[in-house]
Design goal:
The structure is a homodimer of 408-residue chains. Chain A is an alpha/beta fold and 408 residues long. The first copy, chain A, folds into two domains: 17-59 and 311-403, Aspartate Aminotransferase, domain 1 (Alpha-Beta Complex); 75-305, Type I PLP-dependent aspartate aminotransferase-like (Major domain) (Aspartate Aminotransferase, domain 2), CATH 3.40.640.10. Helix content of chain A is 42%, strand content 13%. Chain A is built from 14 helices and twelve strands. Chain A has helices spanning 16-22, 25-43, 61-71, 86-100, 115-126, 143-149, 168-174, 197-214, 252-255, 275-288, 296-305, 312-329, 351-359, 385-403, and strands at 48-49, 109-112, 132-137, 153-158, 179-185, 219-223, 246-251, 264-267, 341-345, 363-364, 366-367, 376-380. In chain A, the strands form three sheets. The first copy, chain A, has a seven-stranded mixed β-sheet with strand order 2-8-7-6-5-3-4, sandwiched between helices. A three-stranded antiparallel β-sheet of chain A has the order 9-12-11. A two-stranded parallel ribbon of chain A has the order 1-10. In chain A, strand 11 and strand 12 form a beta hairpin. In chain A, helix 3 (61-71) crosses helix 11. The N and C termini of chain A lie far apart (52 Å). Chains A and B meet through helix 1, helix 2, helix 3, helix 5 and helix 6 of A and helix 1, helix 2, helix 3, helix 5 and helix 6 of B.
Chain lengths: 408, 408
Amino acid sequence: MNEQPATSNLPGAVSGRAARLASIPSFQRVNSYLRDAGTRRKSRSGGSDFTFGNPHQMPADRYVQTLRDALTPQNDQWFAYQTNGDAAREAAAQSLQLLLDVPFRPEDIYLTTGGFAAIALALKTVGDPGDEIIYSLPPWFLYEPLILEAGLVPVKVRVQKETFDLDLDAIAAAMTERTRAVIVNSPNNPTGRVYPPDLLRRLAELVETASSKLGRRIYLISDEAYNRIVFDGLRFHSPVEFYPHTLLAYSYGKTHLSPGQRVGYLALPPTMPDRDMMEPAITGLQVAMGWVYPNALLQYALPELEKFSIDVGQLQRRRDRLTDELGSMGYRVRRPEGSFYMYVPSPVPDDVAFTESLARRDVYVLPGVLFETPGFFRISLTANEDMIERSLPAFEAAIEESRHGLAT
Amino acid sequence: MNEQPATSNLPGAVSGRAARLASIPSFQRVNSYLRDAGTRRKSRSGGSDFTFGNPHQMPADRYVQTLRDALTPQNDQWFAYQTNGDAAREAAAQSLQLLLDVPFRPEDIYLTTGGFAAIALALKTVGDPGDEIIYSLPPWFLYEPLILEAGLVPVKVRVQKETFDLDLDAIAAAMTERTRAVIVNSPNNPTGRVYPPDLLRRLAELVETASSKLGRRIYLISDEAYNRIVFDGLRFHSPVEFYPHTLLAYSYGKTHLSPGQRVGYLALPPTMPDRDMMEPAITGLQVAMGWVYPNALLQYALPELEKFSIDVGQLQRRRDRLTDELGSMGYRVRRPEGSFYMYVPSPVPDDVAFTESLARRDVYVLPGVLFETPGFFRISLTANEDMIERSLPAFEAAIEESRHGLAT
């Protein structure tokens, strides 16, 4: 290494924006849990890991074979730059059309490196620094960093405590002249609630009325990462069916339980007004945000990936087993209707203490404090059957202990 | 589809930031060229495509086999969320250590979805909205959208016209109290220049002096996407060898001529001061920018990808063939020392007219106007040998025609 000029001690090692992001409390907590989870995974086996929506069984052969097939080059441009690939867009549009009964076209699909990028793309397409984004607690814990990175202002409201439904009055009360979008997440992470169509219709009316009253369009951003993960034959409904100013964010990472592979999209309904402005804005951002298009291989695989999913019936059986068993132990479990998660009231008000009591018994769940709603804990149904069976005595012992006061 | 509430015509279809990005002139020109290139590719074969750094020969078997091997799941977490994977970081650090003789460690490597994301990550790590970023013309044409998306201000200076070296006086003159970083791109796109160590040393001194004088740290952002693509046995030198406040952006997309696969990194030298602030800032941004970590498959492949590259000798032979032939026709070609590109003075001042004259002869190059330096055109050496041989009569005819006045 060559000689270095003397380094003077000058202010401003990192940007204010980066420093602020690094200091978001909920983000720091999640990061610390992520690190701990990695350490735990390396240090031991035999525990029951209900923390993150990660796989705990080998990937499906069909998933691997699909990628293997897509890897075989069919022309000299196989690994050239890819933007919104035609075949991928067409397959995604057809699939979404079937799911939602909305006539999506290929040009309505903007491919991204997964759900995070799709949500960030939606936020930046409609929001300017200082604009407010409303979302409901408990939320996916990474809305806040995405909103702050975009220079936007998070505005948080509570959901209905008993039903886990959106609290429309709270959303209406939170709206101001700076409101630019409301994030809707159904099937919900962490509550597992799938919002009924009537609720979505009333939300659409509320947002339309507020837009008119405030003199500015308020968008819905529909985070539908779990829209294929619904139980009991329930039909999923999307806000996009009720409100044309909806940006729909989707990720294949849930449908195939492969969150480390990055492919998803932002979709606009064909009825979205102002398409002539919206389209160049989105394609510009896809590049300027750091080329957020999914890689070539995943684009080629996408039409085949649309044809299958993980075993949703297996998730449902896990949900039933845990709901029944925990219910009979005295946990007040609300049976989730979709997503990977159950959001369970903690038997004691201090959810962190309770999750630590479970952790001492090798059962790992996430405390509600990570979702800004203390007093709950989240269970991920991506834990495998062995983990679930092994966990039951621990769940029983922990609630029993809680009745006599937790050891700390 | 359900009934929709009436849509009132309200202001603000897209954000101001998105609208501004969509309207950057150089960006629009590049986008329009990209679209045309796609159309051209579909509509005809037999032309010589020297436009973008895309492959025009089948992918290497070893590249495909490396990804195939990485696809085989070795545990149930194979496609789980991946952040800065240990094995990938270690391989990248070792390789960079060999290349630059700088003792990079695994924890100095922050993995990204390619070079765009690495540059965006660097910009946002050090720059706050309103901060100025200096770079030299002709530039890679997407610095401007990345800088603007980050809320930063592009400040452009010219390189030395004859040598294509950085104009240090121009850089010094452009510095203000808002200057936060200088982007350095060597081997350079589009000029093919590899900056000599003495120039980099003087640049380091200049930036250190300016930082002290202005009372604020000015960073270098070293865009080294082509640092493995150098000719004639030349040794590549990085700014990171001379200035510890350098953020190094790298992409595997050039080394393997697979720009549609997205993997790269941002690296900090071990001597970078203020690491305790820098590290959480970068990892926070990796998530908040939209989860810019490369996907699981490419992370697993990375250690093997470090062991080979495209045939740089073949690129060098193409460079020689084109330099010699075009030179003998009367083009004033400067022989590039690295990268994929040759930047050739247009025989007539109107580079767009000249490239159109070539296009009428089925030879496609990019006009200097796309690089904000009219009077040149760029040739990509990723065109194959057939394309090169077929192009020679067209280059000859076009320069001949230019001597008598171009047809328009």
